[in-house]
Write a structure and sequence with these properties.
mainly alpha, 5 helices
Length: 105
């Protein structure tokens, strides 16, 4: 699959995401820190590609709008236990939609 190389950085971004939650053991809402951590992890090693950044930002926006923080916490825990855990279809679908939208396909 053409976009499969995106799944690694997105998985890392999901792992980093909740690490940015600070000292609150059970955050109830996404924060600006979560967004910054996700975008930084998602774009890591992507060079200076504006398309990559746009896809990462789009993916974050869709995750924030469509995935409950508690669900993302569960995803993060699964990835922490096994970094090769596949991302849920819901998340990969959001990523794929953003790849299509932001790359102009």
């Amino acid at each position: 699959m053409r976009g499969r190389h995106w799944l690694g950085p997105l998985a890392v971004a999901a792992l980093v995401l909740l690490g940015a939650c600070g000292s609150d053991p059970a955050p109830t809402a996404y924060s600006a820190e979560n967004r910054e951590a996700f975008i930084a992890a998602c774009t890591d090693n992507a060079g200076d590609s504006r398309v990559v950044r746009d896809v990462c930002e789009c993916t974050w926006d869709r995750i924030e709008a469509n995935v409950a923080l508690t669900d993302l916490t569960s995803i993060e825990e699964s990835l922490r236990l096994d970094a090769l855990t596949p991302l849920p279809d819901e998340v990969t679908t959001l990523l794929a939609e953003c790849m299509v939208t932001e790359s102009g396909l």
